[in-house]
Amino acid sequence: DQQVKQNSPSLSVQEGRISILNCDYTNSMFDYFLWYKKYPAEGPTFLISISSIKDKNEDGRFTVFLNKSAKHLSLHIVPSQPGDSAVYFCAALKGGSYIPTFGRGTSLIVHP
Amino acid sequence: GAVVSQHPSRVICKSGTSVKIECRSLDFQATTMFWYRQFPKQSLMLMATSNEGSKATYEQGVEKDKFLINHASLTLSTLTVTSAHPEDSSFYICSASLWQVNSYEQYFGPGTRLTVT
Question: How far apart are CA A99 and CA A16, in angstroms?
């Protein structure tokens, strides 16, 4: 049973446009969320996180939005660049836990 | 951000031998380290969680006698694949967690490609 779901396995976006990556979760105990970027044959790189006490966190071109009532979060990348092409993983943590639950990832392709 | 290293980055071994993979947090002390395995085109599969000075907690379906984990210090965890078989060939990734004021971050190593022949 997938507690963290990334329903879009892939997304294609034109350079300069906005990329929106979505993530849904089912466990209401999750209170901390993270996004990672992963290139092939490399470890994931931490991008941005958000606590459940917030509904938005911004860091440069990356913004994460959290809708607790819908159990949904999204990562916005603006403007998208070809170097953003990678697999993006959403992860969630329960309060007091050190073990994040990962989604299956969404492959983002940014084309010129 | 913090840095986690893994060594080796790539290893080829013969079936039946054992292989050790090291994971180090280079600029912070990690109370908790994680070992993941990634199959082609699949998500990260958590294998085990290790806390410094205590036994690792293995996920269901992961053989603890086959995948030995040692977390001897706050900056080093090792994964030993014992009596390796070709089906153990995979990409193994470690990570270390860091709690800071009002935030949690988890940093990943670059991964180790294991090929068992």
Answer: 35
Residues 6+ apart with CB under 8 A from B92: B21, B35, B36, B37, B38, B79, B111, B112, B114
Cβ neighbours of residue B42 closer than 8 Å, sequence gap 6 or more: A104
Using an 8 Å Cβ cutoff, are A89 and A33 in contact? Answer: no
Block mean pLDDT (10 aa), chain B, length 117? 88 96 88 86 83 85 93 90 95 86 79 95
Instruction: Tell if the CB–CB gap between A49 and B105 is shorter than 8 Å.
Output: yes
Instruction: Read off the amino acid at residue B87.
Output: E
- pLDDT digit string (tens) for A34-75? 999 998 888 888 899 999 999 999 999 999 999 999 999 999
The Cα B17–Cα B22 span in angstroms is 17
Residue A60 touches partner B, C-beta closer than 8 Å: no
| SS3 state at B3 | coil
Q: Across the interface, do B44 and A44 touch by the CB < 8 Å criterion?
A: yes
Task: Report the sign of the C-alpha dihedral through residues B78, B45, A13, A112, in that order.
Answer: positive
